[in-house]
Specification:
The structure holds two protein chains of two kinds.
Chain A (H helix, E strand, L loop, with lengths): L4 E6 L5 E3 L19 H10 L8 E3 L5 E5 L3 E7 L4 E3 L2 E3 L5 E3 L5 E3 L8 E5 L30 E3 L22 E7 L8 H9 L2 E3 L7 E5 L14 E2 L4 E3 L7 E3 L6 E2 L3 E5 L4 H5 L6 E6 L4
Parallel strand pairs in A: 12-20
Antiparallel strand pairs in A: 1-4, 1-11, 2-3, 3-10, 4-9, 5-8, 5-10, 6-7, 6-9, 12-19, 13-14, 13-20, 14-17, 15-18, 16-17, 16-19
Chain B lengths: L1 E5 L3 E5 L3 H16 L7 E4 L3 E5 L4 H11 L11 E7 L5 H8 L3 H9 L3 E6 L6 E4 L14 E4 L3 E5 L2 E4 L4 E3 L2 E5 L20 E7 L18
Parallel strand pairs in B: 5-13
Antiparallel strand pairs in B: 1-2, 2-4, 3-4, 6-7, 6-13, 8-11, 9-10, 9-12
The chains are: A mainly beta, B alpha+beta.
Amino acid sequence: MTDRALFVVRAGALTTVQDLGRPGHAHLGVPRSGALDGPAAALANRLVGNRPGAAVLETTLNGCAVRPRSTVTVAVAGAPCPVTVDGHAVAWGAPVRVPGGALLEVGAAVSGVRAYVGVCGGVAVEPVLGSRSTDLLSGLGPPPLTDGTVLPLGNPEGPHPRVDVAPQPAPPAELVLRVTPGPRDDWFTPQALRTFTARTYRVSSASNRIGLRTEGPALERARPGELPSEGMVLGAVQVPPDGRPVVFFADHPTTGGYPVIAVVRDRDLAAAAQAAPGTPVRFVEVRRR
Amino acid sequence: MRALPVGDGALLVEVASDEEAQALHAELLRRRAEGLLAVREIVPAARTVLLDGLADPARLAAELGASGIPDVPPRAGHVVDIPVRYDGPDLADVAAHWGVAEEEVARIHAGTAFRVAFCGFAPGFGYLTGLPPRYDVPRRATPRTAVPAGSVALAGAYTGVYPRSSPGGWQLIGTTDAVLWDHTRVPAALLSPGTRVRFVPLPPAGPAAADVPTIPAGRP
């Protein structure tokens, strides 16, 4: 085997391989998948000289630890966290050289949820439908990392930029999600529509790559019955029978039967992906562009 | 027809029937193939077609409102034959719902011309229409925790084939060896929206093949 590989020493709570995902196959029931905090994944790639489509590692809350077989440049972006190489503190949000055989530890997130580990050359697992992303809903792509997994790396594409520390937005203390109403806002009572944008929800610990679940006041429907299954978009705010809004993330099902009260602006989804359980959430209605 | 805006870059076009959804879907695919429509996803469903990744959803909504749904039937897709052993554990329940003998379920089902109305639930899972409304069946009162891959199943107006083992509440009437989804194959999905499907009955296999794990239904 080539020595361009990462040995996974500690997989962490949930670490997956992610790139830009596999859009374009929703009509076959294939979720788009891909990094939940797209700007952070893009930054991790840029810092190590990769193209935006290179695959990175996406960690969840408690990081991961890997040992490259040969010397590589890495960068950790997204949720702020301690980063060490063989126990010595190194920079977060900047390119770091990790000697072959050394241990790169990405620690628990100080704030936020998901850290992105870019490695020069990118993670080079076999793509499925043009993407290396792990899709937790449908099981496409590589399985989540486990201790002892060996991940192949691609060849470096060019010199990485000279950056000391790249500025990144802090994970939100309060998550404000701009929404445009519909397509199924008419399924809810006027009171529920007011509640949705007037009250504060909290991020539920049941959130995952499929959706940001919330806790808070239940939204009452204006009509009984079921909606025939219909196509779903990224950022759709679906309201299941318990009345608590769920914001769809990249591994969302391609069709669904619960009414969508509103849709979150794409640009707000990165912050949503970094909102830890318990974070207050407000939905703010904005005019459609 | 109603075109509902979805966020800033998508449109959900709602129509009156399954047939209209299929006709609209075929028309949208034709427009895209001819370079008249730039869109990332066209996702048909029961009464809707979702267009996602549009630069100007409002303009398309206006265009569709003006042109309406074509009344020509959608172009016939190719036909896929799926060999089936009608040996599912819910065959007797389905026969009771239909008010016919078990062998009659197989005869009616295999004699029906199906069409993939849309896909969802899992990669390669198609919702097939074709059975008359009198053969609608409810989902099982208690879903199974594991439905084997290749199970041919009914729920509501639809027939489906499980591409891989997964939990499910549909009524299982048979099994197939057809591979519904293989990501190393081109195309990966055996069925896509518009595909016509025939189920071809096979003689039942030996008793070992009917070994399906179930959790008891909450009824006698």
